[in-house]
Design goal:
By secondary structure, this protein is of the alpha/beta class. The chain contains five helices and six strands, in the order E-H-E-H-E-H-E-H-E-E-H. Helix 1 runs parallel beside helix 5. The model has no long low-confidence stretch (mean pLDDT 96).
Length: 175
């Protein structure tokens, strides 16, 4: 798919939320990988935080970032599996105005080509909440690479054709 080089690149202000009970900021390899890719693509890291697997805490953090005018997009990593502590999709559901079902569907389709049926354990998802995009990726470094490299790097590039998420940002709060 083409990038229209005749259009000036518009950086997106992206916040990264790692959801984990087992990692410290120093051990957050998936978060580090995501941040490196965001910055290499020319975007702005607006905020970064590591939150425990606690639905209420995740929701509170998402609300704060959704309401921050300096954040256009939130990408979470972790908490999308099927264990009892995996609650990131439920947190997104609690804040969302509109689900973006195609994101999770496409993520699993792409992931299937790399890890086979193990992708069925992923509950990667996305939504729009009060004009802010939120994308929830699994916590593995490989999943972060797949989600960014195969989907988000182009969809968060305003030059990507035939369409992209960035060109819709001014209209996300329409009534």
């Amino acid at each position: 798919m083409p990038i229209d080089e005749s259009i000036a690149f518009t950086p997106v202000r992206i916040a990264v939320l790692t959801v984990s009970d087992s990692r410290s900021p120093a051990e957050d390899k998936s978060g580090d990988t995501l941040v490196a890719r965001i910055e290499a693509a020319g975007h702005i890291l607006a905020a970064r935080y590591l939150e425990r697997d606690d639905k209420s805490a995740i929701i509170a953090h998402l609300h704060a970032w959704i309401d921050d005018p300096q954040i256009d997009c939130i990408i979470t990593t972790g908490g999308t599996g099927v264990t009892g502590r995996d609650v990131t999709p439920e947190a997104l559901a609690a804040v969302q105005d509109k689900e973006i079902p195609g994101f999770g569907e496409l993520f699993r389709w792409l992931s299937f080509q790399k890890i086979g049926t193990s992708t069925i354990q992923s509950r990667a998802t996305a939504c729009v909440a009060r004009g802010t995009y939120i994308f929830a990726l699994p916590g593995s470094t490989g999943a972060v690479k797949d989600g960014w490299d195969d989907i988000l790097v182009t969809q968060l590039d305003n030059r990507f054709r035939p369409c992209n998420f960035v060109e819709l940002m001014p209209r996300l709060r329409e009534i």
